[in-house]
Amino acid sequence: MRKPEHIGIAVKDLSSSIPLFEKLLNTPCYKREIVEREQVETAFLKIGDTKIELLQSIDPEGVIAKFIEKKGEGMHHIAFDVEDIYAEMERLKDAGFSLLSDSPKEGADNKLICFLHPKTTNGILIELCQEK
Ligand code: ZN
C-alpha cells in the first residue's frame, strides 16, 4: 500500500454536508458522482495529499443508509492507494484478511476498488483503490 487515498464519511444529506466540510476544510468540493452499483452519491474534497469522500445513500436499503441507521453519520472507511490491486488482494488474502469481493469493482473517481471485511481489521472498513 502506498498512502491513504481518501477517508470515507457517511452522511445523511450531501446538500448540507458539502457546505459543512467546505467550511471546515476551507476548500471547495470539486466533484460529485453517483455510483449506482454502490447505491451512493459521492462528493470529494481535496485536503493536502488526500481526500475526503462524503457518501450519501441513494437507496433507503443501501449499505450507507443501513450504516447510518445502525451507527449514525460518521467515519465509514479508510481507502489506501495501491499500485496493483490484484497483487495486493492476493497478498492480503494470503495474510489471512477477508475480502468483500473476489475481484475488484468499479468505484467512484475512476478507481478499481475492493473492501476488506472489518472483522479481520479491528473493526475498520478498509478500501483498496487503484487508479484506472
Ligand atoms: Zn471510498
Structure commentary:
With 132 residues, the chain is α+β, with helices and mostly antiparallel strands. Helices cover 23% and strands 41% of the residues. The chain has helices spanning 14-25, 63-71, 85-94, and strands at residues 3-10, 29-35, 40-47, 50-57, 74-81, 105-107, 111-116, 126-131. A hairpin with a 4-residue loop joins β2 and β3 (40-47). It binds zinc ion. Zinc ion (ZN) binds next to β1 and β5.
Bound ions, cofactors and other small molecules, one mention each: zinc ion
Strand residue percentage:
35-45%
Apparent shape:
globular
- Overall structural class, as computed from helix and strand content, comes to alpha+beta
Discrete helix count: 3
- Order of helices and strands, N to C? EHEEEHEHEEE
Radius of gyration: 14 Å
How are strands sequenced across the largest beta sheet? 2-3-4-1-5-8-7-6
Largest sheet: 8 strands, mixed
Give the % helix: 10-25%
In short:
The protein is α+β, with helices and mostly antiparallel strands.
Write the SSE topology.
Elements: E1 3-10, H1 14-25, E2 29-35, E3 40-47, E4 50-57, H2 63-71, E5 74-81, H3 85-94, E6 105-107, E7 111-116, E8 126-131
This protein binds zinc ion.
Main features:
132 residues; alpha+beta; single chain
